[in-house]
């Protein structure tokens, strides 16, 4: 009968899975934010949008050894808030659906409750509801709601040649911190605290995202939860432009750590994932104004040619379209390259 | 040291788990809909509410043998829409977070996509976004968003003595259908189609919920996803009243099935769960007007004494506060009593 072989999800990877699902969906007419951007939105009144995001944390892929339940639950909230931050929208309400393994006890549940509350309250939001089910893994699926101004919202798709590419902070700490946790590497206490701390207590750049949206100078924005390289590729793809990166923002601590263990700091900084800095493109004539208001690192510029170019000294290379991807990468695989 | 034994979640049950989490949360000031009602809400403009709901479907507890992936994904959407229906709010947007086992293939993913879309489109909503992760169980966590009118929203808490208790349809089909599936019982085709069909393709009473909200006659409302008994207890608890049920709305097909296998039809009708009819209380002077607009079965009345009384002929008994509860009941346990 010549049956063809169906690909497993492990072969497909997260992005292909999402494509298959999108192919099954009826499109909402006059959709305000295209599929695949960081958030979804619905018109609610003149000029205002209801902004929604949902992202699921699953213990076996998103909770590294060494992260406790409070930290895991807090992270489940923060990863969603980071997506709203990237669009310049303040979170108001969080809903949390929990899948809980049978062997959890009441103390575990309390730690999860405290973590959810902490994640929301740090960003002035509240947990308003949720539900619990039994599951084999710990699963925390949060939905976050906020209200955005239509004219202020920052999409991935507006970057223009000549715009300045910038980020809200340096990269590589999460990759380095995960390596320390997963490979049980020994590093000086101060360095460990910085790098591992970044993994256990990620921070969404909400203040920066809100301030950036107010400037009206940002042409494209994204968070970097799948890694800097992937985020830059997304801006490139959604905006139909290329990016030339001339100042790779590797954290000093990452360079120090890489030197100790002979890792490639560029690999750690570009392809790690699970970092929550924002990557933005800014109108050049407003750069001065913007950079006075928000602390940004200028890393390159938007170019016409649809390519991602990395310039380091005299060397030019291309930035690959890879990063964190569920199914294809696991915590262990991804961070022990 | 006298360490005390911590209770496992299996001992605690879903409702105690939710209580523990609620105890950890800061309360939003001027919260519009109390914790524990079917949905959560945020003020968005004069008289309007953003209404949000999230509920997670996990294969091992919510997907019985015989339900395919399309049906499971559709159900994951419908169970959330049912909660909005109970409040009289139309769904606009659905977000879906998926946890997918590694052995799923692209055809499986497509079936899930088709099911998600079907569940939303049946109720004029659209799937706007979501994400996928790897998980041991199939997990589909949907978040549904709608806009409600503050003065029209139907809470669980407004029932007054003298109000009429009514439901949008008869009960017990899901319990019976699940028994047929799980215990592989043989029944005539027509009966099987009715009872099993109800399990595989649940229907949210959205039209009824929207029409009921418009009458302004409903004092309390809830869906019956945890079973009729539990839903009535919730109205009783939230409103601080009792209910006297004199006309238990058992479906004819359920009576027929119960007779065949010597099951108790009252047990099937009251304590089953996973049914999506609405239970409401209605101002008596507006009953005629309401029942002309919406097809309702009158089942009893609200009483002052905080008790749930079942009157069947000359026999009076009390309705127990039990029904479907995650962790405490599994599909197999729950439906083979």
For the termini of chain A, the CA-CA separation is: 42 Å
Q: Spans of chain A with pLDDT under 50 lasting ≥5 residues?
A: 331-337
Class by alpha and beta content of chain A: alpha+beta
Largest interface by Cβ-Cβ < 8 Å: A-B, 84 and 84 residues
- CATH topology annotation of the largest domain in chain A: Phosphoribosyl-aminoimidazole Synthetase, Chain A, domain 2
Helix content of chain A: 25-40%
The structural domain count of chain A equals 2
Summarize the structure.
Two copies of one chain form a homodimer. Chain A has 337 residues and is α+β, with helices and mostly antiparallel strands. Chain A contains 13 helices and twelve strands.
Report on the structure:
The structure is a homodimer of 337-residue chains. Chain A has 337 residues and is an alpha+beta fold. Chain A has two domains: 38-149, PurM-like, N-terminal domain (60s Ribosomal Protein L30, Chain: A, 2-Layer Sandwich); 164-334, Phosphoribosyl-aminoimidazole Synthetase, Chain A, domain 2. Chain A is 37% helix and 24% strand. Chain A is built from 13 helices and twelve strands. A seven-stranded mixed sheet of chain A has the order 7-9-6-10-8-11-12, with helices on both faces. A five-stranded mixed sheet of chain A has the order 1-2-5-3-4. In chain A, helix 4 packs parallel to helix 5 (106-121), helix 4 packs parallel to helix 8 and helix 6 crosses helix 7 (189-200). The longest helix of chain A has 19 residues, at 69-87. The radius of gyration of chain A is 20 Å and the shape is globular. In chain A, 58% of the residues are buried. The interface between A and B is large, with 84 and 84 residues.
